Amino acid sequence: IYDPYSGYPIGVNWAGAAGGLLLIIMGYLVALLGLYASIYKVGADVILDELRAMGPSATVRRRCPSCGAEVPEGARFCGRCGAPLVAPP
How far apart are CA 75 and CA 85, in angstroms? Predict the structure, then answer.
């Protein structure tokens, strides 16, 4: 390669060029890995939140001691048989 202003040949530092290209590729791969890791973590958190919301602990229900029907939390009487419910300890 010649310098158009001086007419002298310009040496190319091929080792430096290859090293710079290698660093650019490595930086790209590290950034891509970080992106995938964050997507995986956020996806796992969303799935765990959905599973917790669907689990039995999300809606706590009691059973009537007389007939065994499910009664909502805070109910004082059974909706099926009308028996009074004892408050949980």
Answer: 7
The β-bridge relationship of strands 70-72 and 61-63 is antiparallel
User: Which tokens hold the place of 38?
Assistant: 């964050």
DSSP collapsed to 3 states, 65-84 = CCCCCEEECCCCECCCCCCE
pLDDT at residue number 41: 78
pLDDT per residue as tens digits for the range 40-88: 777 778 888 887 777 665 455 788 989 989 888 888 899 999 999 876 5
Q: Please tell me the total number of residues recorded for the chain in this structure.
A: 89
Over 80: is that where the pLDDT of 10 sits?
A: no
CA nearest neighbour of 88 among 69, 8, 76, 3: 76
Query: Tokens representing 63?
Result: 């059973």
Closest CA to 86 of 62, 70, 69: 62
Would you say 81 and 68 are in contact if contact means Cβ atoms under 8 Å apart? no
